[in-house]
Design brief:
Elements: H1 2-6, H2 8-24, H3 30-42, H4 47-63, H5 73-83, E1 98-103, H6 110-123, E2 128-132, H7 138-151, E3 154-156, H8 164-177, E4 182-186, H9 194-211, E5 216-224, H10 229-241, E6 246-250, H11 260-268, E7 272-276, E8 284-286, H12 289-297
Helix pairs in contact: 2-3, 3-4, 4-5, 6-7, 8-9, 10-11
The chain binds guanosine-5'-diphosphate (GDP).
């Protein structure tokens, strides 16, 4: 499938390592667990999550009286999957009047992801409006406008440097007047000034709550999957300044660090809602932990 192909680098890095361990050991001993641990850490599942997986694997091996290393593979897959358990992913904003705030630092793929999401919603028959509230860079406004034109959706923008909250205010009024289904807002993510960022997001949230209380609200953070553990650290920082409801993990097609999706769900408890596996509109896919684990190991 497309997902399997998109995740091929991560698949190679984790699965080939794991497979050689399962075939290389004749008994389940400490070295066996250590090698699995190393492989998972190399695959960017993170030390903390990896330790939990190994602990869980040991318990499963004991409980089921497994003696043969090759019989451990399914147990390991189950252990990894269990670390990701956050229940079924919800996409309420798709079928309701909603506002989706999208946050992320420069270069992670924020604009591209918003463009893909807008295009997909439009294809589903929803009316979409974009708000260019990342007003810090003129290029960001231009790029978002290009995506809006390409996808045939409306956009509310002001000039570079204008107040993001003012853009959001305009966009909310326009969304209400046009009876737009989904308003997707490109907002900033300058983490180097967390106090300002927090203030900005608070102001934006206040406007949405006051002007558009009937709208369902979603706050998505975009993270670059190729940065591995840095993506996890970034998510933690965003968690301090916003009520994040989901993650968009991009560029998973170009990286062997895809295991970071496991670490994000396990350590932060935030659902990965979408993954980016390419540059085209259809290359933003809904994330499903079962499919993900199956694509990696199946
Ligand atoms: P922004 O600064 O966060 O808005 O980042 P952009 O949306 O401009 O994306 C930065 C670069 O990453 C662009 O060249 C995008 O085409 C690319 N990109 C974004 N998402 C993906 C993805 O899922 N896969 C790949 N291969 N490239 C991506």
């Amino acid at each position: 499938s497309r997902l399997v192909k998109g995740l091929s680098k991560t698949r190679e890095s984790i699965v080939s390592g794991i497979d050689s361990i399962f075939s290389g050991f004749s008994s389940i001993d400490e070295d066996f667990y250590e090698e699995i641990e190393e492989t998972l850490i190399m695959g960017d599942l993170g030390i903390h999550t990896t330790e939990k997986i190994i602990e869980d694997l040991r318990a499963r091996v004991k409980e089921e009286h497994i003696k043969d290393p090759s019989a451990c593979k399914q147990l390991l897959i189950d252990s990894i999957r269990s670390q990701m358990d956050l229940g079924e992913n919800a996409y309420q904003f798709e079928n309701r009047t909603s506002v989706v705030l999208v946050i992320g630092v420069n270069g992670v793929g924020k604009t591209t992801s918003i463009g893909k999401l807008a295009g997909q919603m439009k294809e589903m028959g929803r009316s979409v409006l974009l708000a260019a509230a990342d007003t810090f860079r003129a290029a960001a406004i231009e790029q978002l406008t290009e995506w809006a034109n390409r996808s045939g959706v409306g956009i509310i923008a002001q000039k570079e440097g204008s107040d993001p909250a003012a853009v959001i205010y305009d966009a909310v009024q326009a969304a209400k007047a046009r009876k737009t289904d989904v308003l997707i807002c490109d907002t900033a993510g300058r983490l180097h000034n967390k106090k300002n960022l927090m203030e900005e997001l608070r102001k934006i949230n206040r406007i949405i709550e006051k002007e558009y209380p009937e709208a369902y609200k979603e706050t998505l953070v975009v993270l670059d999957g190729t940065t591995g553990q840095n993506a996890l650290a970034q998510a933690r920082q965003f968690q301090e300044v916003a009520d994040i409801t989901g993650i968009i993990l991009t560029k998973m097609d170009g990286t062997a660090k895809g295991g970071i999706a496991v670490a994000i769900q396990s350590e932060l408890g935030i659902p990965v809602k979408y993954i980016g596996i390419g540059e085209k509109i259809d290359d933003l896919q809904k994330f499903n932990a079962d499919e993900f684990v199956n694509a990696l190991f199946g």
